[in-house]
């Protein structure tokens, strides 16, 4: 394995797709700055990735809080670390009809999925533009391509992530910095549990859930190729193609049927 001597800053790095992405980078010789909330879990995963012969810096931050996004980058700069790659993986959802869900939880999700993501990206760009190189991988979702009844705030945040990623990619096209969006579909992670979504019809057949490792490999390859975006998995590519052909109201209806609780008629 070739040592890159380049750091990757990756949020949501201890579980699911983020963990598998961190593993891909470690396997390929990249040093890691791993960010998550749980300090103990970070240490366990950091020790695991050090076995690949790379440097690993675990930093416990709560990216529901804006100040933690700012202080994360301040700590890196104080230690002379300029990540070559930024992976904005951390994200959550909340399940239920919007009229019934907790507004404080939804504001937290907007802060995590959008606000901290744009803060970290802004700080990354301020650092990397003068260096003329860098790569950004943003976790969007096939949820970004259709309205999402029963999961409306999450779908809305991911629509933002995709649109914004494509916009700044165009702005950065002559800078040496690339922006790639990764669009997984339903994946076998703890996401649904955290979103209180276990009663959703989308989970009736868990064999249909994608492997987080497969999604991570698709994302890693697209990032390294400098692609604008990648929809992970053939089934999800077909799903996006179908939603592109539908009216927005039809796409919303179809998504409502897929995502409503199994108890709902």
From TrEMBL:
<dbReference type="InterPro" id="IPR036291">
    <property type="entry name" value="NAD(P)-bd_dom_sf"/>
</dbReference>
<keyword id="KW-0560">Oxidoreductase</keyword>
<protein>
    <submittedName>
        <fullName>Short-subunit dehydrogenase</fullName>
    </submittedName>
</protein>
<comment type="similarity">
    <text>Belongs to the short-chain dehydrogenases/reductases (SDR) family.</text>
</comment>
<dbReference type="Pfam" id="PF00106">
    <property type="entry name" value="adh_short"/>
</dbReference>
<dbReference type="InterPro" id="IPR002347">
    <property type="entry name" value="SDR_fam"/>
</dbReference>
């Amino acid at each position: 394995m070739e040592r890159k001597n380049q750091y990757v800053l990756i949020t949501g790095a201890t579980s699911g797709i983020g963990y598998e992405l961190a593993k891909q980078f470690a396997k390929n010789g990249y040093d890691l700055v791993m960010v998550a909330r749980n300090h103990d879990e970070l240490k366990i995963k950091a020790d695991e990735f050090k076995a690949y012969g790379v440097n690993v810096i675990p930093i416990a931050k709560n990216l529901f809080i804006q100040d933690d996004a700012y202080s994360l980058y301040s700590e890196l700069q104080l230690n002379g670390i300029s990540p070559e790659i930024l992976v904005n993986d951390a994200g959550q959802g909340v399940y239920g009809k919007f009229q019934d869900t907790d507004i404080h939880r939804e504001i937290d999700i907007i802060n995590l999925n959008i606000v901290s993501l744009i803060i970290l990206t802004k700080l990354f760009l301020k650092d990397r533009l003068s260096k003329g190189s860098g790569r950004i991988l943003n976790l969007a979702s096939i949820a970004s391509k259709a309205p999402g009844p029963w999961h409306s705030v999450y779908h809305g945040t991911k629509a933002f992530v995709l649109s914004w990623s494509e916009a700044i990619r165009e702005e950065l096209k002559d800078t040496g910095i690339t922006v790639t969006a990764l669009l997984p579909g339903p994946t076998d992670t703890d996401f649904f549990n955290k979103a209180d979504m276990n009663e959703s019809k989308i989970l009736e057949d868990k064999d249909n859930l994608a492997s987080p490792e497969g999604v991570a490999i698709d994302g890693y390859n697209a990032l390294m190729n400098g692609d604008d975006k990648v929809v992970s998995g053939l089934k999800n590519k077909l799903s996006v193609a179908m939603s592109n052909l539908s009216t927005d109201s039809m796409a919303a209806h179809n998504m409502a049927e897929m995502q409503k609780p199994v108890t709902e008629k």
